[in-house]
Amino acid sequence: MFVRTFSGAIVGIDAVRVTVEVNRDGGGLGLFLVGLPDNAVRESEQRIRAAFGNAGLRMTMKKIVVNLAPADLRKEGAAFDLPIAVGILAATEQVADDMLGETMLAGELSLDGTLRPVRGVLPLAVRARQDGLRRIVVPAENAAEAAVVEGLETIGAHTLREVVDFLGGERTIPPTQPPASASAEAADRYAEDFADVKGQARAKRALEIAAAGGHNVLMIGAPGSGKTMLARRLPTILPPLTVAEALETTKIHSVAGKLGVAAGLLSRRPFRAPHHTTSQAALIGGGQSPRPGEVSLAHNGVLFLDELPEFGRSVLEVLRQPMEDKRVTVSRARYSVEYPANFALIASMNPCPCGYYNHPDKECTCPPGSVQRYMGRISGPLMDRIDLHIEVTPLSPAELTAERVEEPSAAIRERVIRAREVQRERFREMPGVHTNAMMNTRMLRACCRLDADALGLLERAMERLGLSARAYDRILKVARTIADLEGSEGVAAAHVGEAIGYRSLDRESWGR
Asked: 167, 197, 231 — which closes off a domain?
């Protein structure tokens, strides 16, 4: 007897439908898996046999051939346990096959017949809806994740026996309802707030510009000056995720296995802060079984690299391409996958090994030349891709103890949202471009026209600072964002001057 069930394989952050063809043959014995399965899929035979026995089901002694189509797509992971098991049961007439033609199945089987959660269920649910299937059956722990897809019935089961009884009409499992989405007020409620940060007006201004235009930032200052405190509050002034952004961001976290039980769409922009011992694969993605890295987990959010020079130089260099292209392409001999990586890079570092170069009160104890060597750990091309360089100066005791009311994140966020709305209108006919930081050269010429004063100021800065063409473009983008925050249609000399002021590490005198 021949039957087919449906499942899916993850490619990047999307799913490809996989047809599980099961044929029971009278000749020979055993279970044969074909269709480019990996070791985890091949091992499903032993899990299925044990689960059948413990669930009161029987494994046929006749030859069973299971083909996972398309045959040229590698199938990875234990999520194929459930569709293979149900296909075998249908081929041996232990479960009705009436519902299989409109159902996608995914789940790992334990030896006792219970279902374990798997990663990548959200992309599978999206694929099932796109292919016109009526329902998806997944482990109960994954049901809330799949239920966010509208127009698809999500069935969450705890055991293989529950699935069999449901497909046979002997058990009713109510479809899982989508989890209640967090209200805008709840999504914007953070434990951190810019009101907690005393002083540092220039750093706060730079982070506001970065949030408004999607720019990259490097903060440099002595230990304890507030760099990490400032960076961790950047998400509190970013605009809320749109529905499309939330869906794409949640898919990435689903594929990476980072969503918890009962998780729906992510309501907050991600904030990722990997340790400086992070490897290239962990940062950029890939591995033997490819998964998104930190740059993709930070998609539509913030990637914070603390103590930037302590990261391996080769690790930092892999950031250059995703910072420009807003995506990561991981190519290996066996596969090539693409992950989105539209993140804002926020990095921090000390000015020297001892941390007190340019400190107003403490003396730097580093030997001659050490500051240049320390800064040299960050390559020029990477520094070029960072739009704003901020020197964070330690506060004096009087500033720390002063009683003053600082501006809260909510007030800053309102200005950021208004600037983002201006950019959304500006780029409404430019697919894939949402912020000033994403503009290409042609867009810069159209959107950043300078008057004579602004152009002369920028030309003088290029000569004196020895800026590259990329730095020139970055200054224009930042100036455009500053103008948007002020509600100005044109880019004036004052906007360009402020943008140039955020290129402190381009100065030849730094560290000398």
From this structure: 167
Task: Return the CA Rg of the chain.
Answer: 27
Average pLDDT of the residues in 172-178 = 92
Helix axes 201-213, 469-485, angle to 10 degrees: 100
pTM of the model: 0.89
Instruction: Please say whether the dihedral angle defined by the alpha carbons of residues 295, 297, 300 and 306, taken in this order, is positive or negative.
Output: negative
Residue 352 corresponds to which tokens in the numbers above?
């020297």
Name 155's bridge partners. 137
Q: Which amino acid is at 375?
A: M
Residues 152 and 55 in one domain: yes
Provide the 10 A C-beta neighbour count for residue 124: 32
Q: 3-state SS of 163-208?
A: HHHHHCCCCCCCCCCCCCCCCHHHHCCCCCCHHHCCCCHHHHHHHH
Residue 205, C-beta contacts closer than 8 angstroms, at least 6 positions apart: none
Give the pLDDT of residue 286: 83
Bridging pattern class, strands 302-305 and 135-139 = unpaired
* Distance in angstroms (rounded) separating the CA atoms of residues 52 and 91: 14
Buried b (16+ CB within 10 A) or exposed e, 17-39: bbebbbbbeeeeeebebebbbee
Helix or strand (DSSP H, E) at 67:
strand 63-69
How many residues are given for the chain? 512
- Looking at the structure, do residues 139 and 189 belong to the same domain, yes or no? no
Residues 374 and 327 in one domain: yes
263 lies in the same domain as 379: yes
Greater confidence (367 vs 183) lies with 367
Same domain, 258 and 374: yes
What lies within 8 Å, CB to CB, of 119 at 6+ separation is 10, 77, 79, 254, 255, 256, 257
For 7-32, how does the pLDDT look when each residue is reduced to its tens digit (9 = 90+)? 999 999 999 999 999 998 766 668 89
| 491 DSSP assignment | B
Tokens of 8: 């899916």
